[in-house]
Amino acid sequence: MPESKLVQDIYAVVADDFTAVDKCINIQLTSQVPLVTKIAEYIVQAGGKRLRPLLVLLAARACGYQGEQQISLAAIIEFLHTATLLHDDVVDTSDLRRGKSTANAKWGNAPSVLVGDFLYSRAFQMMVQLGHMGIMDTLSSATNVIAEGEVMQLMRIRDANTSETDYMQVIHGKTAMLFEASTHTAAQLAGSDPEVCESLRRFGCHLGMAFQLVDDVLDYQGDTKAMGKNIGDDLAEGKPTLPLIYTIQTGSPEAALRVRQAIQKPEQVNIEEIIAIITQSGALDYTLEKASEQQKLATNALAILPPSPYKTALLNLATFAIKRSY
Question: Coiled-coil ranges per the record (predicted)?
Fold first, then answer.
């Protein structure tokens, strides 16, 4: 099935819920401070796949949920994600996201950080309104892990000695954790038993890991226009991602040296040379293999759920995770 058709079919399963989420987001973005509303609307409406809200909607329905609170939960997850994007772009000094100027590039670092804080606090206001202590516990713990993941990544910048184990810990915190929280809280909202909640948590975790590992590959061979970011952005920021780590560990001494130098002095990188080196070392193939392993673990975690269009969509999303080109 063509990639675009697969994605359309996944979103179509919860199309009405998605429309309701968009309305909820627009309502909750309102602030008495015009600049807050302006920046928040800019970043939230900048596009993107909205994968995390999608996961909430699909997982809640796959667990048999029949209410309407999944709409608010999906909006909460999107606000948490958007807050991390605003802060990340400041930390990474990024000027392009999803093909548009970042908020910090348009308005400066201080407003971006503060609006990120606004979105965090609005998300927690909405959590209180949900009135579900289990969900609040899961999301408060998740935001803590995400913050730790971001700090761990910051500590690894320009560190050519980063191990694969170190890196997996970083991406679990900074990326997979919110995927995990999305599906876990959806199951909690549905009142699922602990075994189902745990299975949905694991599904989200492994799916998030797969997505990040594929992102690592696309950073070297993706399409700039489709991704909305430049090729080699992670390396330009001195981030030792898995393709680089693998090349250092298994490549020739010459290849390992060049990659080490690229991580330590990214401002001097010849990106075409590095792409050739990591491709020849088999690092991109290795990273895709690791992503495929995570995808299989995610798929296996859904075995506990009964058949439904929502379960099928979740399985298709796991397939999209490793087959995508953007």
Answer: none
